[in-house]
Write a structure and sequence with these properties.
Blueprint lengths: L18 H17 L3 E2 L5 E3 H8 L4 H6 L1 E4 L5 E4 L4 H10 L8 E10 L11 E10 L4 H17 L6 E6 L3 H17 L6 H9 L13 H5 L10 H17 L4 E2 L11 E8 L8 E7 L3 H4 L7 E7 H10 L11 E5 L2 H17 L5 E3 L6 H10 L4 E5 L1 H6 L1 E6 L7 E4 L3 H10 L1
Parallel strand pairs: 1-5, 7-8, 12-13, 12-14
Antiparallel strand pairs: 2-4, 3-4, 5-6, 6-11, 7-9, 9-10, 10-11, 14-15, 15-16
This protein binds adenosine-5'-triphosphate and magnesium ion.
The site of adenosine-5'-triphosphate has 18 residues, from strand 6, strand 10, strand 11 and helix 11.
């Protein structure tokens, strides 16, 4: 029997009843980013595999086991992007956006990771990412954090908390890494399988373990904060000062290390306890070394990415009310002549009434069935054209959302009536 064709596991359709919530989220985010002066950049979803291996790091979860990589028809190894930062850096380098200039950029779109699908974790998911280039100070880190802090109330979301840490310079981290390896080697028997592997490849990531049994061991581990270099320490202190001045609350989480290799100095996560182990809705930090790592001149950089599915899920759980845009009118018509006049009238009204949202009944039907559809469409008014209306040069109008009598309106006055409804 032929295999049933269906969507790939962990990849989902977004149906028309769900898209208004997505559109609201995306618009709120893009309006906010624009208001801070950030420009949108769009990159391809497929890149050379090498880009991700070199930027994210060979021993990260993403590169080790989560990438969708394949050979194209030329035999080149390509990868569906698992995140946006690497592509954004590549695009900026390639288009000369990093030379002696500051960039404040954002992007949105699908990302792909071969993970075990569960609530808040998918194989195709969506991120909005923000990246800044050419700014080395804590002021831009503070701006990025303030911007995200403003987003949650704008979306009607509560109880999303900020965690902050500093990863220091790469030298400081190397130094700390040694101390950490020493510590975990002393407790080797208590390490779970993932952590044993990470001890050899990427020991800092053990701190990021989601396994509750690792928690006590991780809490007692040496703290990166105690090994920071002076420059990173000052950067971190100034960032805290700026956040305090702006009234942004945070806790310092010494075990916050982030999954990707390219971070340094500031790292942060916005976390909720409502989504279980998938509680991070936004994560970011500074990645001063990445441009150079990809072959460019060193450029300081800082950014974050947020997971839209997780935000949607929170909006659903919190029953966040958002503006909907139902049609102003639904056009009901009886008979061939009425349909002809209706189409003509509808197109004319669309010319004359700016922003009009008008749904025309297609496919005919009885009075009852057309009204049922009008009601279901959530339109505010029904406009009715039948034989009488044709003969009298009128239409009938009925408010579908309030109990009221049907009204007769001259066809010549319909545009004016609808204009009033559209302008509210
Ligand atoms: P996690 O620790 O949850 O795996 P991560 O460190 O891999 O997250 P990042 O690469 O920093 O995540 O991605 C930024 C954000 O994108 C995450 O905080 C999360 O909100 C979202 N995200 C990451 N992976 C997924 C996924 N597989 N499905 C849905 N959202 C995701
Ligand atoms: Mg991950």
């Amino acid at each position: 029997m032929a295999k049933k064709i269906q969507a790939i596991r962990g990849m989902h359709d977004t149906l028309p009843e769900q898209t208004p919530r997505w559109q609201h989220l995306e618009k709120t985010v893009s309006d906010l980013l624009q208001s801070y002066g950030y420009g949108e950049i769009r990159m391809p979803v497929v890149e050379m595999t090498e880009l991700f291996c070199r930027s994210i790091g060979e021993v990260t979860d993403i590169v080790e086991k989560e990438m969708y990589s394949f050979e194209d028809r030329n035999g080149d190894s390509l990868t569906l992007r698992p995140e946006g930062t690497a592509s954004c850096v590549r695009a900026c380098m390639e288009n000369g956006l990093l030379h002696n200039q500051v960039q404040k950029l954002w992007y949105k779109g699908p990302m792909f990771r071969h993970e075990r699908p569960q609530k808040g974790r998918y194989r195709q998911f969506h991120q909005v990412g923000v990246e800044t280039f050419g700014l080395a100070g804590p002021d831009i880190d503070a701006e990025l954090i303030c911007m995200t802090a403003r987003l949650w109330p704008a979306l009607g979301l509560k109880d999303i908390k900020l965690q902050l840490n500093s990863l220091g310079s790469s030298d400081a981290r190397a130094n700390y890494r040694e101390k950490l390896v020493e510590y975990y080697n002393q407790h080797a028997a208590k390490l779970d399988e993932d952590s044993q592997r990470r001890l050899k490849t990427n020991p800092l990531r053990i701190l990021d373990s989601k396994n509750p049994e690792m928690q006590a061991l991780n809490e007692a581990a040496p703290k990166l904060m105690d090994y920071l270099d002076d420059d990173s320490r000052q950067h971190f202190e100034r960032l805290r000062e700026l956040l305090d001045a702006a009234g942004v609350e945070y806790t310092i989480n010494p075990r916050l290390v982030r999954g990707l290799d390219y971070y340094c100095k500031t790292v942060f996560e916005w976390v909720t306890d409502k989504l279980g182990a998938q509680g991070t809705v936004c994560a970011g930090g500074r990645f001063d070394g990445l441009v150079e790592q990809l072959g460019g001149k060193p450029v300081p950089a800082s950014g974050f990415a947020m997971g839209l599915e997780r935000l949607i899920s929170l909006m659903e759980d919190d029953n966040v009310v958002f503006p909907t845009r139902p049609a102003h009118a639904y056009l009901v018509m009886f008979g061939d002549e009425a349909e002809k006049l209706g189409l003509q009238l509808a197109e004319q009204l669309r010319n004359e009434v700016t922003d009009l949202r008008l749904v025309m009944n297609c496919g005919g039907g009885s009075f009852k069935s057309q009204f049922k559809k009008a009601d279901k469409s959530n339109a505010l008014f029904a406009i009715i054209i039948g034989e009488d209306e044709i003969n009298n040069g009128t239409v009938s109008m009925k408010n579908l959302r309030e109990k009221s009598e049907q009204q007769t309106v001259q066809q010549s006055e319909l545009a004016e009536q609808l204009n009033k409804i559209v302008r509210g």
